[in-house]
Design brief:
Layout (H helix, E strand, L loop, with lengths): L10 E2 L12 E5 L3 E6 L7 E5 H11 L3
Length: 64
């Protein structure tokens, strides 16, 4: 886990099925960034983006 997400509370979508074998992304909010990682590799790489950029991504990605 990277230092930027140390102690972060990770969550994944309720639409992911919730099982341990479900491949999904997880997100965590830190004071500085929104972090994204692969749920099947919690010790793997993390993408960290500014909160505003994450919000813009969600606005564009949401199904209306």
């Amino acid at each position: 886990m990277s230092d930027i997400t140390s102690g972060a509370r990770w969550r994944k979508s309720s639409y992911s099925g919730g099982g341990d074998q479900q491949a999904c992304v997880e997100v965590a909010q830190t004071p500085d960034v929104t972090a994204v990682r692969d749920s099947t590799d919690p010790a793997g790489p993390v993408i960290a983006v500014p909160h505003g950029s994450w919000a813009a991504f969600l606005d564009d990605a949401v199904v209306r």
